[in-house]
Structures are given as C-alpha cells and as structure tokens.
Amino acid sequence: MTKSREGRDDHDPGRRKFLKGVGIAGAGAAIADHLWTEAEAKNDPAATAESLSGTVKVVLDVNGQKREAQVEPRTTLLNTLRNHLEPAVTGPKLVCDVGTCGACTVLLDDKPVYSCLVLAVDAMNKKITTVEGLGTPEKPNAVQAAFVQNDALMCGFCTPGFVTTISAYLKKNPNPSLAEVREACKGNFCRCGTYPRVFEAALAAAKGSQA
Ligand code: FES
Ligand code: FES
C-alpha cells in the first residue's frame, strides 16, 4: 500500500473497494469503477494505468468560495482540499485516511463527514465547510474560542475535526449534556488524550452561545 502523502489514494483498487463497502460510492465512484472495469476487462496493466491517468474538472463550494481543481475521478475530497487547490485548504487533517479517526472531518451541506471517504466529484454542488470556514483567528466561532480558553488541544492534529463536529452538533443541540457531547464526538479520536478538555470546551461553547 502506498503511503506517500500526495499519492495516498494511489492504493486503489483497495480504496475503491473500501469506498463501495462503506456505501460512499456515488457518481464519482461509479466513474472510477467504470474506468477500472474497462481496463480490467482488457486484462491489460498498461490500459489500467492509462485509464486511471485521466482527470476531471471539479468545482467545489469551499467556505463560500468556488474552487476549481483538476483531479482523477478517484481523488478524495480530503486529498483535493489539501493537495489540489491553490491556495490549499489544510484545516482538515490527513491521519488515518480510512475513516477511523475524524481528523479530516468537514461539513457537507452542514453534516459532518470524513472527507477521506468522500470523492471530490461527489462533493460538487454541495456546500463544503472546513474549520477555516467556521471562524477566523480574529473572529473565532464559539467552539473555536472555547477550545482556546479551555486549552483543549495538545498536538492539535485532531482539533479541526473536533471543532467541526462540535460546531455542527451544537446547532442541532444547543444545550447538550456531557453524555450527549461525548456521544456526538464518538467519531473523533484524540491520541493525546485531551478528551476531558475537549468536552469542557464543547459545554463552555454551548453555555456561551446561550448567554
Ligand atoms: S483521516 Fe479521515 S477519518 Fe482519519
Ligand atoms: S491533541 Fe493530539 S491528537 Fe488530539
């Protein structure tokens, strides 16, 4: 399996099968699948490489701005944001790349998703919000401000994912209990173990938003 950052999703067909397996396959997966099936039918490695070398233009609505990129159909939203836009959108972090950690969480039409499991072509015509779109250093949203005030991070790699998940959750449930916050964050992992402060920050943000 290729582990390079730029080419992390070069390890198809494993990713293709995985995306299909978890039910993420949409139009983009169908395009990629078609290309693979055609090449595989010819049983020709050169044809496979050629088929997969094609690119498509994607236009993404990222934090209220139209952003264009030329990517292979199998390119994930995470890879596109981080590696195919200029300037890059690097808030969503690449950690596991297989939908287990939540570091890559973005909002797709206001719902949290793992952007490493969404193809860029499937994110077209949807509103994409990354942690950068929630607030700015000068004007952070309530969750971002609460993370700073509660010292809710160590290495910070998981932080954009938590902030994004919690920001979306508090819109749905502005007055959550600790148990509800914990449940809402169950798709996000923090390897530094800052969970208590993350949950404190979430509750503080909820309280602050109501004040
Ligand atoms: S990088 Fe996407 S879930 Fe871990
Ligand atoms: S602060 Fe390091 S992984 Fe969460």
Report on this structure.
The protein is of the alpha+beta class and 211 residues long. The protein has helices at residues 14-21, 27-42, 45-52, 77-83, 142-149, 159-172, 178-184, 195-210, and strands spanning 56-62, 65-71, 105-108, 111-114, 127-129. It has eight helices and five strands; from the N terminus they run αααββαβββαααα. Helix 2 runs antiparallel to helix 3, helix 5 (142-149) crosses helix 8 (195-210) and helix 6 (159-172) packs parallel to helix 8. The longest helix is centred in the first third of the chain and has 16 residues, at 27-42. Bound molecules: FE2/S2 (inorganic) cluster (2 copies). The site of one FE2/S2 (inorganic) cluster (FES) has 12 residues, from loops.
What are the SSEs and their pairings?
Elements: H1 14-21, H2 27-42, H3 45-52, E1 56-62, E2 65-71, H4 77-83, E3 105-108, E4 111-114, E5 127-129, H5 142-149, H6 159-172, H7 178-184, H8 195-210
Parallel strand pairs: 1-5
Antiparallel strand pairs: 1-2, 3-4, 3-5
Bound molecules: FE2/S2 (inorganic) cluster (2 copies).
The backbone outline, from C-alpha atoms, is elongated
CA(first)-CA(last) distance:
50 Å
Tell me the β content: 5-15%
Q: Detail the poorly predicted runs.
A: 1-40
User: Mean pLDDT across all residues, rounded?
Assistant: 84
Ligands (ions, cofactors included): FE2/S2 (inorganic) cluster
Query: What structural class results from the helix and strand content?
Result: alpha+beta
Number of strands: 5
Helix fraction, binned, reads 25-40%
Q: Order the strands across the largest sheet as they lie in space.
A: 2-1-5-3-4
Largest sheet: 5 strands, mixed
Helix count equals 8
Over the alpha carbons, how many angstroms does the gyration radius reach?
18 Å
Could you state the order of secondary-structure elements as H and E?
A: HHHEEHEEEHHHH
